[in-house]
Design a protein that fits this description.
Blueprint lengths: L4 H6 L8 H19 L6 H22 L16 E3 L10 E6 L7 H13 L3 E4 L9 H9 L11 E4 L3 H4 L4 H7 L4 E4 L2 E4 L5 E4 L3 E5 L12 H4 L8 H11 L9 E5 L14 H10 L6 E5 L5 E4 L2 E2 L5 E7 L19 E4 L5 E3 L2 E3 L3 E8 L2 E8 L4 E9 L6 E8 L3 E2 L2
Parallel strand pairs: 1-7, 2-3, 3-4, 8-9, 9-10, 10-13
Antiparallel strand pairs: 2-17, 4-5, 5-6, 7-8, 11-13, 11-14, 12-13, 14-21, 15-16, 17-18, 18-19, 19-20
Length: 409
């Protein structure tokens, strides 16, 4: 009997963020597939323990105590990691980019979002991290590389960042299976993504994808004493400083930062360290950045904010790509961080009120950058735009449209 969409969604409700739980869920997926593909299964309990728990234990111990995949950085294979933005239609001046985070769940909702993305035919598609449950090869295949997978590959490029879930398998499938399928076009040449970070740029904008996933998972026991802070590794810092030259005062283009982990959150942990590292590279400049991230499974527009010693940022959480969007209000003390939060309820499963999945469509046209936050029913929930002042690098921001949700002024 085929698994229903509701049953599939239930697997992700109350999903914890421990590595052990996600490994167990992965093995359960394999077990259920075995049952479904077998015409006659007897002694189901013993089969469960044999195919699920033993497999889980091996996978968990190997990943938990094994070495991470070697870090990959630029230059690599002659690639600098900086790619010129280009339209897939030469006569069209605008460039469109679809951003999805926490999408790779192989749910009915994630398929609906991906199919909607394909209707817009963006030039670029970017997955901003978390392949569920543990970023294993089969999960990469199901979501991205199999002929039946629903991920849309942009004609000009398709790129990926890692989240913590990819690192639950030490990043092996991310580096060995997903990155080889990702690319950016340079003219007619397809350049395979070589590292878990990148920069897309034109004369007005720079879109910088940073890797916060590699350092998001620590070693057993040690991470209790010293929780991971998602810091940027030295090789990535060197690339931002020497290749991207993100601190060049003469470069007044608008900067958009993409990451998996949140610079700011009103719901869960927030990770200040990457922002502090970027601010050191940017120097004394008071220029704001636009920063979009995932990890929190919801759509939240934050007020312009400076977190710790990081940069002033227009922060946006877009972690609603494919996981159940569980609607809950933040603590009162955090309400002042929020400008808008999509609190609409799409369905209720048990005691869970679930919101709308979706993606972000960025449109770059000259000095103007527009962000459309679209749900799986193609409703534009929130639309905003920024205009870059090339004389001083400052941003002019305007809200174009918004539908009812939790708006805090």
């Amino acid at each position: 009997m085929a698994e229903s969409a509701e049953d599939r969604t239930k697997k992700y409700l109350d999903l914890g963020h421990s590595e052990a739980e996600n490994h167990a869920k992965t093995q359960l997926e394999l077990y259920e597939k075995r049952v479904k593909d077998t015409s006659s299964v007897t002694n189901v309990i013993s089969e469960f323990f044999k195919t699920n728990l033993i497999g889980f234990a091996k996978h968990y111990l190997r990943s938990r105590f094994g070495a991470k995949h070697p870090y990959q950085a630029y230059p690599r294979n002659g690639d600098s990691g900086i790619y010129k933005l280009q339209s897939s239609i030469p006569s069209r001046e605008e460039i469109s980019i679809a951003l999805l985070s926490d999408w790779a769940s192989d749910t009915t909702e994630s398929d609906a979002v991906a199919n909607l993305v394909s209707r817009y035919s963006p030039d670029y598609t970017i997955h901003m991290g978390d392949i569920y449950f543990v970023g294993a090869p089969k999960e990469v295949e199901a979501n991205f590389t199999a002929p039946y997978s629903s991920w849309y590959y942009g004609a000009s490029g398709s790129l990926a960042l890692s989240g913590n879930h990819e690192m639950y398998s030490n990043g092996n499938a991310f580096f060995q299976h997903l990155l080889p399928a990702m690319y950016a076009m340079e003219g007619e040449v397809k350049k395979t993504q070589q590292a878990g970070f990148f920069c897309l740029e034109n004369e007005h904008w720079r879109i910088v994808g940073i890797d916060t996933g590699y350092t998001s998972v620590g070693k057993p026991f040690l991470e209790i004493l010293s929780p991971p802070d998602c810091h940027l590794k030295d090789a990535q810092i060197a690339w931002l400083r020497d290749v991207v030259k993100i601190g060049d005062p003469a470069d007044t283009r608008g900067v958009v930062i993409l990451s998996h982990h949140p610079y700011l959150s009103a719901f869960r942990e927030e990770y200040v360290r990457p922002g502090e590292q970027i601010k050191v590279l940017m120097g004394d400049s008071n220029r704001p950045v636009i920063w979009l991230w995932g990890h929190d499974h919801r759509l939240v527009i934050y007020n312009m904010f400076k977190n710790g010693n990081g940069p002033v940022a227009y922060g946006r959480c877009i972690g609603h790509g494919g996981l159940p969007v569980e609607i809950r209000l933040p603590d009162l003390v955090d309400l002042n961080k929020i400008n808008y939060y999509d609190t609409r309820v799409r369905t209720v499963i048990g005691r869970h009120s679930l919101g709308y999945n979706g993606f972000v469509r960025l449109v770059l046209q000259g000095k103007k950058l527009t962000a459309e936050y679209r749900d799986l029913e193609d409703t534009c929930v929130y639309e905003e735009c920024w205009t870059i002042n090339k004389e001083n690098g400052q941003l002019e921001w305007n809200v174009v449209d918004v539908i009812p949700g939790l708006a805090v002024r």
